[in-house]
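Researcher: We're teaching a course module on how sequence relates to structure. For the next exercise, students receive a sequence and then see the predicted structure as tokens, so they can try to spot secondary structure elements on their own. Here is the exercise chain.
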Amino acid sequence: MTDVSHRQRGDLSGHPDEMEMRERYSRVMGGRDVVFVDGPVFLAGLYAAISPWILHFHNAHPDLTVNNLVLGIAVAVLALGLSRAPDRMYGLSHALILIGAWLIVAPWVMGSNLDAGIIVSNIIVGGLIALLGLASAAAALKARSSAHRAAKHDARHDTRHDTRNDARNDLRR
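Model: And here is the predicted structure for the students to work with:
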């Protein structure tokens, strides 16, 4: 048995299961290269939710206020889900694209006689949410394809390993 007590914490070199641990870590963290997207998505959702009060149109345009509030909260909740359970939530990253697109067109659909600031604000936050949704969706597709390739590799590896063990067992009999 290998003595691993002399190693510094965090250093895997010399650990008997080093390769297996590194492969498992890369499989588990494969989709987390989009970790920098979760925070900005959350902040964009919060801004969308409170923008009616920041831009002072909550009294003049109540329909757009409710729209921005509900969709902003939904984006913030999706962002929290993406950061807490990415393997389960990345399928919903496509919803961010649709929410962002709706935020862009909502001022013309739901409002009339809007200030340019309201329109520009919705275009910017909607575009940002849509772009971040695209980044999350692309990362999800990348993570799925790499997980699929890893599963194929593991299946081939397990099959070869089982075949060798079967051959060894046959020779022993």
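Model: If you want an answer key for the exercise: Residues 116-172 form the longest helix (57 residues). The mean pLDDT is 81.
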